[in-house]
């Protein structure tokens, strides 16, 4: 399986797990919220909104175009901090995010 195929499979799993946890939103945020210059859009979006509306679509587009993927990813530390405050069992989602970090940070 190619790097792009691995990443695509992980993106689908992340989306599915977010939906199962009730983190998936049906209405996108305002365009201005998506234009934040802060890491993870911390000033305008919740972390799960950033994953849904920015991270997943950008990576899906890169996969679809077979474009070069990021060579460094450190999403897990942010996810850990955010998920500590949630009542839901986020262990599966955190594991998927860790796999994505590893896949994007290591060339296979």
UniProtKB/TrEMBL annotation:
GO terms for biological process: single-species biofilm formation. InterPro entries: UCP006257, YqcC-like_dom, YqcC-like_sf. It comes from the Bacteria. Residues 7-102 form the YqcC-like domain. Coiled coil: none annotated. This is YqcC family protein. It comes from Marinobacterium marinum.
